[in-house]
Amino acid sequence: MRDGPSETRKLDLGNAAALTVIVVGIVVATLLLYYLIDVLILLFLGVVVAAALEPWHARLSRLGLPKGLAVLLIYLLFATALVLMGLLVVPVLIKEISTFAAAVPENYATARAALHASPSSLLRLLGERLPPFAALPQGLSGSSAALFSGALGFTTGMVTFVVSLVTVLVVGFYWTMEVPRVERLLLSFFPVARRAHVLSIWQEIEFKLGAFIRGQGLAMLAIGVASGLGYLVLGLPHVLALAAPATAATPDAWITTKTKLALLTTEGVSGTAIKVDTVVGRVTLHGKVSTTVEKTHAEIIAQQIDGVAGVHNLLQVVAPRHEKAMQVSDNALKQRVESGV
Measuring CA to CA, how many Å separate 157 from each of 39, 160, 163, 245? Predict the structure, then answer.
């Protein structure tokens, strides 16, 4: 009987110690995730590149090329295409920028004269406040340090971009060559009975992710070609310079990807149950969530993504006990519509 309180005290101390270790482990893992987020993003992009190139290097491998050589050949083809595009577009862009810079004084004077002649008193006041173009360099002479800082930041950003690109390509190459070993390593953490199911889920995710990236790339190429042909028909000059930005002007897919990843990695939000669509920067959330708090939290997360112009929250709040009934009613409604059609 005397050992009862002491044993209880030991159990309490043991539980407290275990809880402390768990809390410390969570804090350390969170800090590591925060400080290593850039590295994790590069690793993820490398896996995405490998998934996107998988059908192409598999086809080359069936023709007799080794897998590593096939991946390097695809890298070389993409690099050659980018270099040729740069050689065609960059000179035109430089010429256009030079022409625009030479016409800035004349355009500025024309705009200032139009403001002076405007019937609106507010616009005339704005025109009077604008200094002549000859006085602008004097006002801008003190900003040379800011311009130098901006140029230095641009150079640093370009170097960082090149290093990140090389890292992603290396990770993609390594993942392509070592994916069977990586899969076996990851599957070793799961029970034997569930390994086949986990492997099938992972392969399906990888396949769909690669198909999504390939589809977006083809969409960007189609937009660029269609824009170039349209500009050519209209008789506009410098078709390549105009079509190149149109090729890259498809940020909706990237916004959707970033929003989906943010929802999947946020605690308290069921990212798998929330579907994301983006049109011209406006994100639409639809699906079913358990609480109003989760619905609001998902909208806040989407609003914080760079490039999002607005969020349309169509999430339905369905309590877990009513979710099955809701699914039954949805199926019944679908059957009624199909039978009516």
Answer: 16, 5, 10, 20
